[in-house]
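User: I'm curious what two different proteins look like when written out as structure tokens. Can you demonstrate?

Assistant: Sure. I'll show them one after the other, since each token string lines up with its own sequence. Here's the first protein:
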Amino acid sequence: MRHALIFAAGLGERMRPLTEHTPKPLLEAGGKPLVAWHLEKLAAAGVHYVVINTSHLAGQFPEALGDGSRWGLRIRYAYEGPTPLETGGGMLNALSLLGDSPFIAVNGDIHSDVDYASLPVEPQGLAHLVMVDNPAHHPGGDFGLDAQEVLHAEAPSRLTFSGIGVYRPALLQDWRQAIGDAPGAEATPPRFKLAPLLRRAMADGLVHGTHHRGAWTDVGTPARLAELDGRLRR
């Protein structure tokens, strides 16, 4: 049984005032919350169990999504406390609910036509990331993808990480060594980004990826949400 994690704990500061009373993943596009699009697609891909990270206005998620049964899913909520734990800390916080097998992880504030059934059940290394063309607001990209579909932290040509990936829990082993004395490392629970762990794994050739050329939106501003809403309604 495939498991999945949805990152939904962010404060949504760039989306204010929309996120003052609604968490960003619960904002609607095309007549349904952003997170509901992910839940539908995960269920269609054979996922039965989803963990949702929460922090900002956390109580609204179970009110809106319930136990997941309407999608044929079982949803568990991993509350991060009043301060979001970032992607690395959030994943670490949710591991006890996710088990020992590789899992899909998705940013709750994106929308795409990526088919989650196409994601590898077992990544070749420690992670498999879906990459997309660089959007106008992120022209420099994140990582380079070579002809063997291996990702590199440094490359002359880089793509943007879509926020969709498959991870082995082992990626988080020795996380403290990977992030050093980054702010939040000493907090309880620890707060840190996932990128340093991915770069460490890339240095060992343990992160693969694919280039998705279809639709993808990082819903980072009210204008992008409005554009996505209009496109989905058409």
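Here's a second, unrelated protein for contrast:
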Amino acid sequence: MTTAAASTTSSTPTPRRGLRLSPAALIWPAMLYLILTTQVPFFMTVYYSFFRYNLVIPGDRPFIGLANYANLLSDPQNLRILGNTVVLAGGTLILTLLIGGALAFLLNRNFPGRALLRTLMISSFLVMPVVTAVVWKNMLLNPVFGFFSWVVTQFGGQPVDWLAQFPMASVIAMITWEWTPFAMLILLTGLQSLPDDQLEAARLDGASPLQEFRHIVLPHWTQAIQVVVLMETIALLQVYGEIYGSTSGGPGVATTNLPYFIYQKAFAEYNIGLASAAGVIAVILTNVLAAFLLRSISRTSSSRGG
């Protein structure tokens, strides 16, 4: 019995330990891919921003330090372009919040065809930026056969060349139409997470609709609004396709923002040094705003949790 047990014990294979990888080791391939595709190009952009580098004369690339940045921040036209970037993003953000909030209130009620209406309202967000620009430029804003000019003539007015007379307002309206469904979806999600008993208690206490919105809906909406502000600010600071397809930055520089300015310097003038400096400024501006908004969101979440 002892011999049999010993032989059985000796014949039992010893389990071998497999190779165990830590979670950090599993993440490293993805991190390496992100570093190669995002950080390496960014550091190359920073590097080129310190040189006078034009592709027309690629062999002449002198180091000029911060001269490209000084040129960007001292030229009045470039300062106007920075202002256009802020006006375009801020104006679109305010309009999408107002219109998206109103549509969220509408879709938060039960009525026949609500699902179909919600699908139709989301559809504009799925249209590509260049397609949006072409549709608005040729079908809505055209002074000869555009829909808006036709409406003006029906009331006895003269046809309006919207992109020439009101270029920034036209681009803001175009991008607002594109981004309002996003704000509507986020704000509608916030409304649907509001407990009904809070609204019923406020109505029983005699609160008016304005008081109900101010003291119950708006505080509950705060985090959803901040998410919309964060996501749209980052996206609207990078608007390019709508401007390229509609105004090409004109008339003059009336609708030129920072991304389109970078495109002009890099691919029209081949000024890689100046375009790289503008790209670095755009990245810094976006990250500063994103960090500020993320901190604001986390502060609101922690205060509500406390």
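A detail about the second structure: The chain has a mean pLDDT of 86.
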